[in-house]
Amino acid sequence: MDPVRNPYAPGAGQRPPELAGRDRELEQFDVVLERIARGRPERSLVLTGLRGVGKTVLLNALRSQAIRKLWGTGKIEARPDQSIRRPLASALHMAVRELTPRHRDPDHVDRFLSVLKAFALRSGGENAKLRDRWHPGIDLPAASGRADTGDIEVDLVELLVDAAAVARDVGVGIAVFIDEMQDIPAPDVSALCAACHELSQQALPLVVVGAGLPHLPAVLSASKSYSERLFRYIRIDRLDREAADFALAAPAAEEDVTYEQAALDALYATTEGYPYFVQAYGKVTWDHAPAVPITADDVKVAAPHAETELAVGFFGSRYERATPAEREYLLAIAALSEFTDGTVTTSDVAVHLGRKPSSLSPARDALIKKGLLYSAERGTIAFTVPHFGLYLRKYAT
């Protein structure tokens, strides 16, 4: 098969040729956009799921929907050691710039940009790191008395309310997209929840769309008790059989290539419908298939090559980030989760390692911060990456 014509895209956040299995989420977001633009009350959205299920891809697709409806949009990726003040200021600056050509009152836009500048300039003093400084290119003086207290909760509420007012003048809205939302520092999470609460109460045309790991709802709930009612939570999971087959077959058909049913059976059994794996195994299978149609034998020949690529890149790079103590913890979870759904108790890990649970807390907490583990319920732990336990049992023991 011609590798140049290979349609599959197993990249981080890279949109696959066919965004299969996400029609319901796309349709729901269309309704949200229309309701908000008409002044109807709506909740912000939170997408949750394991790594490799396509959260970032879907987040980008939702942003494209907002852009098509002429909304102002901005996107950030949260980091555990960085306040969202500076990146959010940049995202809102971009969103308002998209609306400015259609705004009838340039003075209103300028007033908002002055407030935005005041908000952003509170992101760091003279000794702040370069990445924490913001150089907005706004040729206006910073406003005084609005979004400039230094208290992120007060400032963010005022800023988002003012941004929504600019969008309302144009008859549309602003959508802010936040990837890796579970990594937002705790004070900023509280501020974001408070701002979304205010926007919802006033039915203002600004929506936040976040994406993060399965424990993100618990992170939000720990910050503000009302967050359970503040956001609409959408769990993004692996593809069902029909959608996984379509994700493989539809792009191939565009290149006049077909699959035997047995080949699709073998690919689903291997990938279990996880979108990243569907693309990864589809790409390698295409490259190794000698002719049309692609057969189960082609999948069998290609699978070890795909597995090796994943072991080095998708899995190996994550394992290499762990310290020796953290790797010991990971291997214990892998051993214990072989015959479970992947979730184990922290007490079982301690027993397996012959250690006191308290002595393992630093390793566990570091692995959660690195995004390798998550805890959806107190006393439990699981991998954030599908098949990670299988990789560890095969390659790291």
UniProtKB/TrEMBL annotation:
Chain intervals for the UniProt region annotation (Disordered): 1-21
PROSITE patterns in UniProt: CYTC (PS51007)
Keyword NADP among UniProt keywords: no
Domain Cytochrome c per the UniProt entry, residue ranges: 168-273
GO MF terms held by the record: electron transfer activity; heme binding; metal ion binding
SUPFAM superfamilies: P-loop containing nucleoside triphosphate hydrolases
Domain of life (superkingdom): Bacteria
Pfam families: AAA_16 (PF13191)
Record-linked InterPro entries: AAA_16 (IPR041664), Cyt_c-like_dom (IPR009056), P-loop_NTPase (IPR027417), WH-like_DNA-bd_sf (IPR036388)
Full protein name: AAA family ATPase
Lineage: Bacteria, Bacillati, Actinomycetota, Actinomycetes, Jiangellales
